[in-house]
Known about the structure:
The structure is a single chain. By secondary structure, the protein is mostly beta strands. The protein has a domain at about 10-105. The protein is built from 1 helix and 6 strands. The chain has one helix at about 100-110; strands at about 10-15, 25-30, 45-50, 55-65, 65-70, 95-100. A 6-stranded antiparallel β-sheet has the order 1-6-3-4-5-2, with no helix packed on it.
Amino acid sequence: MRREYRGGAAPSYLSSALGNSTADLSISCNDLANWPTGTGTKPFFVVIDRGTAVEEKILCSSRSGNTITVYNDGITVGRGADDTNVVAHGINSVIEHIFTATDADEANLHVNTTGNPHGTTASQISGLTKNSYQPSAPTSPNTGDIWVESDVIA
Length: 154
């Protein structure tokens, strides 16, 4: 699933305790300015108490103001994500927006998938034939566009 990331999300603190149950799905914090919002169904990961015995990573579905909602689709609950345990966290525990091993593993799997994971062939790209493509920089790239230059078209 596509996730949201924000480079300017500064660490924050819990403004109320978070219980040790997968039913505890609301996280209240003191300041979540510049944090992801989960807009467009793009969840994001957080970690509470990083580097301690009670470190927990959580997949979150949304943020509104200073409240984060934990991901819960009825099958998967976001508490205890990325091989961590669901544990209680006290007021003033540090919470951070993070990139996880889960994110890296999924990207690595996609990059190393053999064959053609997107199902695209040269005949689907209008006007392109093997050894005839002359790459040029995009005239107006959009944020998130990926431009790959190659001399081989499958």
